[in-house]
DNA sequence: CTAGGGTTAG
């Protein structure tokens, strides 16, 4: 098959006299300088090598072992011809050789195996070599030991070590370093150190092998000590120590080493920069990262994808998405990693719509998503409530991955279903996976809680404990919030007690938050207060806000004033608390105080976080703000809103305008309510989906009381299930009532 | 008669 290549390009055709073996003179001088052979070293890929091979046969050069040696060596060395193709090509030459292969050829065959995907076969080849009467030399062992390192073959490595001793080759610097590396990479640091200490001829390379071993085992102090002992440090030794600190998460120190390296006038290379970029990404060192960016440009390395991806990752992790996107768009041959980094960057910064959009572009580009892609895109679906896209991904996973054993993938999928409003599918996926990780228990328990399935949520918690999975602090947030959604005061007390005493988990702010929210809502202000006093940390804004909310439910105006003073001290510029207090005043009819707060808000120039609701239709996420008129079908939406309004009025719905803060007329206040973002999303859902289809919307804030009662009626009037996720929980509206039983 | 060891992003 090697002779079936198309005719050589003109540049490869060499007219030279055929050579004959055994013609008296040893032809090595001639061979070395023969044009066909010097071409081998310039060879770019295996295709070209085949053409040269054909040429060699034509000229009779293949009768000389020297020639074949060079070909096999090429297969072992060249990255273009290496790997599996290189190995099989080398093998075919080896097996069809006329004479006994010499040691050089045996050694290079072992070298081919070391770089292949089955390095263990190198050992078999070595045994075959011994069987044919060949004795290994100082070149054989580095290749062989490299195979043991690559294949994790510690036992075989040990045996080979005894061969080394028998041959008296342990003092050979190359063999010595290979042994250290083999032991170190197999996690046998003590053995590695024994070998290291035995030799008195150590150089920077053997030091580095030992340092790498220590560093990858997390023994940074040992690595550091050896590093200090090296008299002349080169790039690779610097890289090893820098990478070691990066892998241990000690990024600032890694960057300090890098600066020392530059001070010592050692020139960094691509590997250095990949580690440095990783350190910058993790420690948000944008300045240093930018410096590396210009270094890459100066050294014209813009086409090195590994390096550019690392740079891209740095920009994303440092939050400079604009620069990242510019770089990303400029990469001509993006790989899966480039896409993953950019998509993950958007998700990470909360720009979920852009993440989803880029994911769709990725599919159009023909690049296949992998597990990492899915793990960054699922949270975006979850956040946006993009159930259709989520279902598509589920089907994609079924087709392409064995995902049910991948715990993070399945957990992410369960979370997506739960938070996109489809708790049944979440439960189905949960039931189907094995093993069930702690995280998967946590997401299903909190998912059920959010949907108001309090009983099954708590049952699942008992089942989890029965099956021997130890709950953690996150589990208890889920359990306590479950109690909170169900108004189960006594159970919550018991779980809280059990968490502290049985599981020795010290409560965090969120645990206190659930408890205080629950106690406050139940009107148990004294107990809530003493719980706050027992906390070892100061109550945060969330806790004070939920106390304030409880004051509203129970008309506690004076207490509300005390609490809001503390809240305003903590967050003077967050309008949420002011709005809540003003609502409490409004409910008590204290309009003067309402006006005072409004002035305070205006003086400080505070803006409420705008309410935003989204709905996914045909895999496209549509977002709406209050009074939003930017949507392409805005006209139809507002016609629908008017229609809804009329029907609501007919059904006897009376808008409660007391919570509207602005100084406007009663009629306008009603308007402000009708155009709340969730109302717009629902109206769009009604006009863009078939009758009877469930409408799912997601809101970034809590749903207001007025919209809640309106939505209940809408579900009845239009005969639709409406599933709404707000900041706090899910509301399933059906036939005029809501799954939350008006408790939220 | 040719060769060999240590560093590598999501």
UniProtKB/TrEMBL annotation:
Keyword Repeat listed: yes
A GO biological-process term: RNA modification
Keywords of this entry: Repeat
Pfam families: DYW_deaminase, E_motif, PPR, PPR_1, PPR_2
PPR repeat intervals: 102-136, 203-233, 234-268, 304-334, 335-369, 437-471
Annotated family: Belongs to the PPR family. PCMP-H subfamily.
NCBIfam families: PPR
Designated name of the protein: DYW domain-containing protein
């Amino acid at each position: 098959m090697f002779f079936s290549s198309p005719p050589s390009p003109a540049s490869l055709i060499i007219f030279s006299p055929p050579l004959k073996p055994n013609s008296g003179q040893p032809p090595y001088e001639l061979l070395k300088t023969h044009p066909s052979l010097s071409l081998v070293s310039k060879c770019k890929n295996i295709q070209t090598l085949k053409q040269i091979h054909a040429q060699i046969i034509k000229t009779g050069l293949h009768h000389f072992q020297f020639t074949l040696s060079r070909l096999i060596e090429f297969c072992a060395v060249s990255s273009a011809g290496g790997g599996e193709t290189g190995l099989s090509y080398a093998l075919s030459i080896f097996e069809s050789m006329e004479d006994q292969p010499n040691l050089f050829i045996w050694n290079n065959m072992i070298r081919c195996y070391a770089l292949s995907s089955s390095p263990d076969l190198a050992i078999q080849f070595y045994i075959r070599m011994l069987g044919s009467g060949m004795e290994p030399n100082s070149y054989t062992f580095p290749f062989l030991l490299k195979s043991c390192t690559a294949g994790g073959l510690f036992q075989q490595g040990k045996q080979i070590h005894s061969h080394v001793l028998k041959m008296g080759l342990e003092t050979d610097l190359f063999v010595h370093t290979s042994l250290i590396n083999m032991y170190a990479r197999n996690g046998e640091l003590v053995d590695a150190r024994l070998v290291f200490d035995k030799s008195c001829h150590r150089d920077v390379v053997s030091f580095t092998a030992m340092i790498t071993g220590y560093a990858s085992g997390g023994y940074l102090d040992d690595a550091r000590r050896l590093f200090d002992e090296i008299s002349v440090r080169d790039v690779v030794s610097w890289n090893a120590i820098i990478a070691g600190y990066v892998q241990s998460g000690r990024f600032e120190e890694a960057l300090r080493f890098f600066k020392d390296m530059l001070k010592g006038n050692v020139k960094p290379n691509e590997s250095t920069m990949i580690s440095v970029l990783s350190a910058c990404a993790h420690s948000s060192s944008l300045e240093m990262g930018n410096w590396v960016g210009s270094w890459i440009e100066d050294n014209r390395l813009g086409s090195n994808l590994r390096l550019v991806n690392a740079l891209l990752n740095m920009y994303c992790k440092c939050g400079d998405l604009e620069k990242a996107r510019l770089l990303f768009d400029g990469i001509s041959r993006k790989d899966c990693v480039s896409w993953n980094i950019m998509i993950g960057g958007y998700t990470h910064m909360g720009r979920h719509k852009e993440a989803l959009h880029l994911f769709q572009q990725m599919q159009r580009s023909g690049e296949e998503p992998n597990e990492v892609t899915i793990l960054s895109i699922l949270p975006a679906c979850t956040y946006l409530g993009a159930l259709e896209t989520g279902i598509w991904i589920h089907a994609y996973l079924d087709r392409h991955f064995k995902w049910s054993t991948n715990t993070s993938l399945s957990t992410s999928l369960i979370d997506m279903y739960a938070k996109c409003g489809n708790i049944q599918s979440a439960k189905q996926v949960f039931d189907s996976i094995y093993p069930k990780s702690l995280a998967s228990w946590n997401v299903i328990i909190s998912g059920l809680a959010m949907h108001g399935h309090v009983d099954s949520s708590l049952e699942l918690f008992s089942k989890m404990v029965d099956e021997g999975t130890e709950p953690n602090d996150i589990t208890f947030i889920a359990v306590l919030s479950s109690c909170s959604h169900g108004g189960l005061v006594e159970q919550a007390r018991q779980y809280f007690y059990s968490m502290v005493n049985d599981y020795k988990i010290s409560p965090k702010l969120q645990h206190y938050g659930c408890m205080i929210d629950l106690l406050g809502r139940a009107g148990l202000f004294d107990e809530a207060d003493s719980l706050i006093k027992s906390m070892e940390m100061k109550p945060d804004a969330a806790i004070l806000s939920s106390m304030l909310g409880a004051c509203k439910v129970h008309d506690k105006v004076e207490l509300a004033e005390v609490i809001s003073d503390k809240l305003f001290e903590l967050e003077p510029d967050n309008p949420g608390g002011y709005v809540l207090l003003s609502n409490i005043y409004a409910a008590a009819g204290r309009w003067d105080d309402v006006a005072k707060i409004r002035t305070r808000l205006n003086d400080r120039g505070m803006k409420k976080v705008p309410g935003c609701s989204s709905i996914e239709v045909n895999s496209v996420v549509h977002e709406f703000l209050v009074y939003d008129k930017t949507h392409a079908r805005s006209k139809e939406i507002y016609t629908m809103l008017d229609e809804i309004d009329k029907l609501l009025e007919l059904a006897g719905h009376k808008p409660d305008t007391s919570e509207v803060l602005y100084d406007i007329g009663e009629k306008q206040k009603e308007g402000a309510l009708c155009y709340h973002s969730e109302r717009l999303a629902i109206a769009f859902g009604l006009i863009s989906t078939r009758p009877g289809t469930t409408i799912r919307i997601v809101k970034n804030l809590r749903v207001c009381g007025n919209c809640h009662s309106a939505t209940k009626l809408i579900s009845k009037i239009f005969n639709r299930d409406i599933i709404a996720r707000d900041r706090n929980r899910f509301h399933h509206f059906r036939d005029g009532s809501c799954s939350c039983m008006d408790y939220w």
